[in-house]
Design a protein that fits this description.
Helix content of chain B: 25-40%
Shape of chain B: globular
Largest interface: C-D, 48 and 52 residues
Distance between the termini of chain A: 37 Å
Number of strands of chain B: 12
Radius of gyration of chain B: 21 Å
Structural class of chain B: alpha+beta
Number of domains of chain B: 2
Shape of chain A: globular
Structural class of chain A: alpha/beta
Distance between the termini of chain B: 47 Å
Oligomer: heterotetramer
Chains: A alpha/beta, B alpha+beta, C alpha/beta, D alpha/beta
Radius of gyration of chain A: 18 Å
Largest sheet of chain B: 8 strands, mixed
CATH class of the largest domain in chain A: Alpha Beta
Largest sheet of chain A: 7 strands, mixed
Chain lengths: 282, 342, 147, 322
């Protein structure tokens, strides 16, 4: 008998980190599958998503935000917004969650080998990028890639996520981190003040032998892609991950389609070329 | 496959025999005069002649409107989950070939690409005994979308009315099994078969509605951004009738129901015509207007399903045409796209 | 369970929505005055009887209440001037509707109890409990447990 | 009949041109059979498609909520439809200055499906005339009459407002109220015991598929977020079973209490024919007897549940006094 794809595994919260506060706080949950055998078998690739839920509340799809080279645990970063995410934010270390997945495709890191990488993230959109940044910076992988630039921005200082980690990697001499905030209340802001694409325009990255990976609010993605193209990036050099409302995770429940493509099943990672060819509402 | 014959007077007995040790689902007429596929205790409760006019299709036999996906319990040592058990055997009697074709489509949707597992468990316990369509309704257009009044797709047995009885076509191994040991059936005579063929031909010819579907999946793509969609969606009131009465609409919502001891995760039919269906947690909705939602529905049925499975997600049963409170006619809508300006 | 309870007495669940300023204070007074009244009521404090949405009542029935009591200030005494007048209209219609679909309207009681009427509150609870006891357990509208 | 329709076409064409309306909402022939469906008239060509007959049952007022703020539109209203407009005015749900009401007096609409069933099969159906008693059709060149009383709707047979209560232009003669007593159905049902009533309504609620056609067809259900779909707080579970569907039907009826103007769109839209008007009429009767209130008549009035009278009856209120 075929397995019931809706039957979840159970995972325990082993750590919770408050990434940013404000009215829409973001927390990163470190999870471990309860079942030892499943825990050993669980693996995923950067860019993939998991359905994380609370039994009795419901489940939501989240991008895996941890380095996929680490197998003992996995992490999701969650912004408090709806019913499930609010309940997740109330959860404590030791609580057991339901997990299904991983789902979807992933970043084709194999094809990026030998190339420079440019990450452009905004807000909670940094979560899937964090996973792939973790992967490429992993000791085993770093030598496979050229220079690495990380652009990241949020609405204000308080909303910047993963700040410790970003500060840590910015100390490395093989990574350049460029942080920005949309607006700052402080008189002397330590970050670039302006939207993420403004920061990108300032940096004028070289398209040659470079791959750009972007994720953030739909408007930011749109503007970023246009801007990158103006710098000479071809549509095949730009990758992004899309989000839609999701329920089933396996392309059955219908709602996450963009044209004939189901984001949960065929995505969430798409090249700008693939997005150009999509017909549908997004 | 084999073709048998049964006299009209023996039909009820025969069908009851086929439903032995299984739940019976068939067209039942309620006090308001509405025909729906419902559970019945005997074939005598069914209105087999009027099944073509049933407002709710037989879809729920394989995809219940509310269905448990799994259950969970909150024990002292934390929560545990348990898979659903196998469902009872069900025999659906009296569904028309369009409804059966709908189930045949669902079979592929739920098993291809990712086999979700759950659907197949229920499906293998469901047998379908269909009835040929002798008198298509004014809203029927099955022959335009790959079906026919005597279509056998999805069915296990097909009964076709002839003068004094029914030709019983065996369409599958399951059907073969159903009729073994049925004493009241005999081999169909040549005359009966000829009569059946003639009746079905007449039925097919009496279908008035038609949709120009040749190459429509390509053409629709070319008019995706047409003003046409604005015009046709203007009268849509955004209810879910078209999707809920449709034999092929399968989209669903997932919700939890629980108390302190435990609960279930359910799937419940959902409708792409609701704004809530696609709205993000952030409040952003990729399909904010009736235009987007109606276009999405038409494209899903006539473009994307065609591209993915090589069939249209529409079996021409005509229910959405007949039951839409404002008569948005999908056949007319698809035909109209050929004249739409790009 | 001992033998003498084998003929089980039905103890109804009654959900009481009491307004903060009068009825809740009345219930409080009943308590501090040590008045005895049946322990079947589960009190939910609302700021005003006018806050009670008909769906509060329906949800109470769905989730296991056998009776619902709504308590507000006496007419003309509402802390918010008019809230109880609105509640009165709303509940009158809800009772009519429930009766029309076959739910005994005695399952939905409305009362006015002031902050000084502890005794009246106890009395109302006694009559409501008696009334619902006679009606027996509510079967209608109950949520089906699927697990 | 042709006369009424021609007159209406003339009025619409005139309004469209002289009042600079973005569109006028009227009726056109359905895609099959004898029925009608909404038509959005933007041009002279569209005016030719406009029809009006007892087969025009839809309440077009519900489309006013889709009107863009800058648009001036026209809408064809029957008596009941016009009351929906008044009710919307009471609730500040419509900008009267931006809406031209084309009133048509109506002797009641008929059920298209019933008419269809009384006609022979054919490929073309044309309504060539109608009066108080009958409808004359030509089906494939054959003339056939249908007795109006056999196909008319219950809600129309006891309609009190056959002439629109508010309009800018009136087409047709003013009409008096229908003679039949309005609440005989409700009172007949009230003769049943509580048990019998519940048995009847559970059977109805169990049929409900929660497609929300009743809500969406209603001219007065315009909330941007319906309580039925809220997840926080969740008043109704999504499960489609008798308790949740019962809850939904009670919720819908209560939200229309004292607001329902009796156009019957909910019942007509329901794909499983739940007799929703029976619930609506019961509440309408309650509002009338308890509060002497009728919905959708006085543009300056208040919805019944947004108003009160200190002397409202309170025979049901329990007294704690011993």
């Amino acid at each position: 008998m075929k397995e019931n794809v809706y039957l979840p595994s159970l995972a325990r919260i082993v750590d919770i980190k408050l990434e940013s506060g404000g009215s829409r706080p973001i927390k990163t949950f470190r999870l471990e599958l309860v079942d030892e055998k499943k825990k050993k078998e669980f693996s995923y690739r950067a860019g993939q998503c998991v359905m994380v839920g609370l039994l009795g509340v419901g489940e939501s799809m989240f991008a895996l935000s941890s380095n996929s080279m680490v197998h003992d645990f996995f992490e999701v970063s969650v912004m408090r917004h709806g019913k499930v995410t609010s309940a997740l934010h109330e959860a404590e270390i030791g609580d057991v969650l339901s997990v299904r997945g991983p789902f979807g495709n992933s970043f084709d890191v194999e094809s990026w080998k030998g190339k420079d990488l440019l990450f452009v993230g905004g807000g909670i959109g940094q979560a899937p990028l964090r996973s792939v940044i973790g992967f490429v910076l992993d000791k085993k992988n770093r030598a496979d890639f050229g220079s690495i630039d990380v652009l990241y921005g949020a609405s204000d200082e308080g909303a910047l996520c993963f700040l410790d980690e970003l500060n840590n990697i910015s100390c490395r001499d093989d990574v350049n981190v460029h942080l920005s905030v949309d607006c700052s209340s402080e008189s002397e802001c330590q970050y670039f003040v302006g939207f993420v694409p403004d920061n990108l325009a300032r940096l004028k990255p070289d398209a040659k032998n470079c791959v750009a990976i972007t994720c953030g609010p739909p408007v930011m993605i749109k503007v970023t892609i246009e801007l990158l193209e103006s710098f000479g990036f071809s549509k095949d050099q730009i990758f992004t991950t899309l989000e839609q409302r999701m329920k089933c995770g396996v392309g059955k429940c219908g709602r996450c389609n963009i044209g004939g493509v189901y984001v949960c099943r065929d995505g969430p990672v798409f090249s700008a070329r693939e997005i150009e060819g999509m017909q549908g509402d997004f | 496959m084999k073709e048998l014959f049964i006299c009209t007077k023996d039909l009820e007995q025969f069908l009851n025999f086929c439903c032995r040790d299984a739940k019976l689902l068939g067209p039942v007429r309620d006090n308001q005069g509405v025909v729906r596929f419902c559970q019945a205790s005997s074939v005598s409760e069914l209105v087999l002649e009027d099944a073509a006019k049933s407002n709710m299709s037989a879809k729920k036999a394989v995809l219940a409107q509310t269905e448990v996906l799994f259950s969970f319990a909150n024990g002292d040592d934390g929560p545990s989950v348990s898979d659903v058990e196998e469902k009872d055997r069900v025999v659906v009697v009296g569904l028309r070939p369009c409804d059966a074709r709908g189930i045949w489509e669902l079979d592929r949707v739920f098993s291809e690409n990712v086999d979700e597992g759950l659907y197949a468990r229920r499906r293998k316990n469901v047998a379908l005994i269909g009835m040929s369509c002798i008198k298509p309704d004014v809203t029927c257009f099955c022959s335009s979308v790959g079906g026919s009044p005597g279509g056998q797709q999805g069915l296990d047995l097909l009964l076709s009315k002839v003068d004094d009885g029914f030709v019983v076509s065996i369409c599958s191994d399951v059907g073969e099994k159903l009729v073994t040991e049925a004493s009241m059936i005999s081999d169909a005579l040549k005359e009966a078969l000829n009569k059946r063929d003639e009746t079905l031909k007449n039925a097919e010819e009496s279908i008035k509605k038609s949709v120009k579907t040749q190459g429509v999946e390509k053409h629709l793509e070319s008019v995706f951004n047409s003003k046409y969609w604005e015009k046709v969606s203007e009268s849509c009131i955004g209810c879910g009738v078209c999707t809920f009465v449709c034999p092929t609409c399968y989209c669903f919502d997932m919700q939890d129901e629980s108390d302190r001891q435990g609960g279930v995760r359910l799937r419940i039919w959902d409708s792409c015509m609701y704004p809530e269906y696609s709205v993000h947690a952030s409040g952003y909705n990729p399909r904010p207007d009736r235009l987007n939602r109606l276009r999405n529905r038409v494209f899903h049925k006539f473009v994307w399903m065609k591209n993915e499975y090589d069939f249209f997600g529409c079996t021409g049963c005509g229910r959405c045409v007949r039951l839409c409170p404002v008569n948005i006619d999908i056949a007319e809508l698809v035909n109209g796209c050929w004249e739409a300006k790009k | 369970m001992s033998d003498d309870t084998s003929c089980e007495v039905f103890e109804p669940n009654i959900v009481a929505f009491l307004c903060n300023w009068c009825s809740y204070a009345g219930a409080d007074l009943a308590g501090t005055s040590r008045l005895q009244y049946p322990a079947n009521v589960r009190v939910i404090r609302v700021m005003c009887s006018g806050r009670v949405n008909p769906m509060f009542v329906i949800n109470a029935f769905m989730e296991g209440a056998d009776g619902v009591l709504i308590g507000g200030c006496h007419p003309a005494d509402c802390h918010y001037d008019q809230g109880n007048y609105f509640a009165r209209r709303r509940m009158a219609l809800l009772r009519d509707l429930l009766e029309f679909i076959g739910i005994d309207p005695k399952r939905l009681s409305v009362t006015w109890v002031s902050a000084s009427e502890g005794g009246n509150f106890a009395e109302v609870v006694r009559s409501v409990t008696e009334q619902v006891k006679i009606l027996g357990p509510m079967q209608q509208l109950r949520r089906e447990k699927k697990w | 009949m042709v006369e009424l329709q021609e007159k209406l076409r003339g009025v619409v064409a005139d309004l469209l041109e002289n009042e600079k309306l973005s569109y006028v909402i009227g009726y056109q022939a359905a895609s099959f059979g004898v029925g009608t469906r909404p038509l959005f008239i933007r041009s002279k060509e569209d005016v030719k498609k406009l029809v009006f007959s007892p087969l025009c049952s839809a309440n077009l007022v519900r489309y006013l909520k889709y009107r863009k703020p800058e648009e001036s539109v026209g809408v064809v209203v029957k008596g009941c439809d016009s009351r929906a407009v008044v009710q919307l005015i009471q609730e500040s749900g419509v900008n009267r200055e931006k809406v031209k009401l084309i009133g048509v007096s109506c002797a009641g609409v008929v059920e298209a499906e019933k008419v269809q069933n009384m006609l022979p099969e054919g490929s073309s159906f044309e309504l060539v005339g109608f009066d108080e008693k009958k409808l004359d059709f030509v089906v494939d060149n054959k003339k056939i009459s249908v007795n109006r009383s056999e196909v008319s709707l219950e809600r129309c047979s006891c309609c009190e407002y056959q002439t629109p209560v508010v309009y800018d232009v009136l087409v047709g003669e003013k009409r008096d109220a229908a003679e039949k007593y309005r609440y005989s159905e409700v009172e007949d049902f009230e003769k049943h015991s509580l048990e019998e009533r519940w048995e009847f309504w559970t059977a109805q609620f169990e049929k409900c598929i929660r497609c929300y056609a009743c809500r969406n067809a209603c001219p007065l259900c315009y909330c941007p977020q319906c309580m039925a779909e809220l997840l926080e707080p969740q008043w109704l579970l999504r499960s489609v079973d008798s308790s949740e569907c019962g809850g939904w039907n009670i919720m819908r009826a209560m939200h229309l209490a004292g607001r329902c103007i009796g156009c019957g769109e909910c019942e007509r839209a329901c794909p499983v024919d739940i007799p929703l008007m029976l619930l609506n009429k019961k509440l309408e009767k309650s509002c009338l007897s308890r509060f002497d209130h009728k919905a959708g008549l006085d543009p300056k009035g208040k919805p019944v549940l947004a108003a009160f009278n200190p002397n409202d009856p309170e025979e049901f209120v329990m007294s704690g006094e011993c």
